[in-house]
Amino acid sequence: MPQIYNCESIQEALELANQFKQQKRYDYFRGQRQNWHVKSSVGRLDQKDRSYIFDVEIPSLLKWIEEHEILASENYSTDQIIAIAQHYGIPTPFVDFTTEPQVAAYFASDSNGDGSHSSCIICVDESDFNDFWQQIVKASVRHVKPEYISFQVSNLWRLETQAGLFLFNPYDDIEGFYDFDRIVFPCGSNDSILPESYIYPDRKSKLEIQLDEYFSERKRLRNFERLQSDNSFRKVPVFLEDGDVYPPLINEACLPDFLPSWNESEVAQWLTYDCESYFNVVRGKTRSIPIEEDRDISLVVSELLNADPSLRNEALDWRVEHEQCDSIAEFLNRLWDEMRYLPFTNEQIAVAVERVVYDYMDISLVEEWDHLYPSQRLMRQSLYKRMGDLIYIDFGDKDRGYSRSYVTMQGLQSCLAEGIESCLEVEGSLQKSQVPSRVLQAIRNPSLAYEFDKFVDLYASEIIPRQVLIRDLDDMLFCNPARVNRFGLA
Fold first, then answer.
1. Are residues 315 and 432 in the same domain?
2. In a 3-state reduction of DSSP, which class is residue 2?
3. What are the contacts of 361-368 at 24+ separation with CB within 8 A?
4. Residue 366 has pLDDT above 80, yes or no
5. How far is the CA of 429 from the CAs of 254, 270, 424, 432, 433, in angstroms?
């Protein structure tokens, strides 16, 4: 018979679970907002939806990882890929558990919990669990043994912060065989347990940034498929880019396979990264940037980074000492998280920070526009559109994710390959100032038109900073110039 421990509050339940852990009475814990049976997410689906998960969603994720220039080198196991899927909402046969009662209590609580129903913390003695299933499997070869599996997934910080492990559960209702002990209590608020930012970190690892890109694009494609299947909408053909140029604007015979500056040895350093631990990277360190009349921000930031190279290994919280920059931290932190692990120089990062600060301050001067725009993003876009020299661009990678930003004609001109204008097919003469926009129209693959080192400079000084400012926080950013294979007019 299962042991049921009744408590009067979530705080009392957490105290009891901590006591059980200290006594080594139970090894693993799972929080549930309702006192329901333990089921895997895939175990709640009908057969049609299960087939879609195993035939489409998980193979798609696996294929993406295998073909990804950076993630393929991680050699993730099948279990690790299923763990990634589990943490990003794809139903799997895994059930989340943790070694930390406080994490379990968080998942057993609710921000709006009012005690109107019972929550529970499942408590597992691994030895008892294994002994039970060993006898079941021994008695009948038809039964598959569930098991607890624990492993690390490099750079999956949410698994690390949640002290997570998994129960492989091949049954729709495992409690038809095995009764889990549990602590039962009225559902209460999780405000006093752990902050949500601890369970789901605000700062993202390199892997999580890439996964956000993937799942954002998967969501976009699913929405489009639903739109196409809805008979209330007129069916429209889908045109997917499969080429690098738009003839007849370009003489394809004139183009190389790629410019020498995009050679494999040069690009390779942009397609790898190290494993980082959340608790080693996110330490709550803050760095402040003073606004001084006689010193450029880029100089201040570059001196700061050059003086302490270890800062590139930490998720810093950036602040700017100016009354117009009270809310700039979210933009600078996002820029820092995207750039610090890539081989940008300290000076390139400093230039990007300076661009964000000065553009942000310019935008803050037009607060009276707020009522004209439904979002701050649209207000910032409108401001950039009023700057006559800026060109609105669209870019993405082979996974068909995309982002947008603004660049100057001068910036584009600075990184064009020498003689590229001779590949353009035009009537009459072409002025030098017209070449950048014509290249944007004619050549979509940046490795055919822009020198890599200059393209990196343009990315740091213009594309990334403006991208950070005009994209919403839940929009994807593309900050690795080596992975961009589509680059043109928006």
1. yes
2. coil
3. 361/322, 361/324, 361/325, 363/469, 364/324, 364/325, 365/324
4. no
5. 18, 38, 11, 10, 12
Tokens matching residue 124: 């597992």
Provide the token pair at 384: 């950039």
Residue count of the chain, please give it: 490
Retrieve residue 311's tokens: 């800062």
Residue 98 contacts residue 28 (beta carbons within 8 Å): yes
- The two tokens of residue 258 are 């790629």
Is the CA virtual torsion 155, 158, 159, 163 positive or negative? positive
Structure tokens at 37: 């049976």
Task: State the residue range of the domain holding 349.
Answer: 209-489
Contact 70, 210 (CB under 8 A): yes
pLDDT, position 189: 75
Do 155 and 190 have their domain in common? yes
CA dihedral 441, 266, 403, 71 (to 10 degrees): 140
Alpha-carbon distance of 322 to 58, in angstroms, equals 48
| Residue 413 and residue 353 in one domain | yes
Q: Is the pLDDT of residue 305 over 50?
A: yes
Q: Is residue 342 over pLDDT 90? A: yes
Predicted confidence (pLDDT) per residue in 15-46, tens digit? 999 999 999 999 999 999 999 999 999 999 99
What pTM does this model have?
0.86
What pLDDT is stored for residue 93 in this prediction?
A: 96
- The candidate with the shortest Cα–Cα distance to 119, out of 133, 105, 129, is 105
Distance CA 115, CA 113 (A): 6
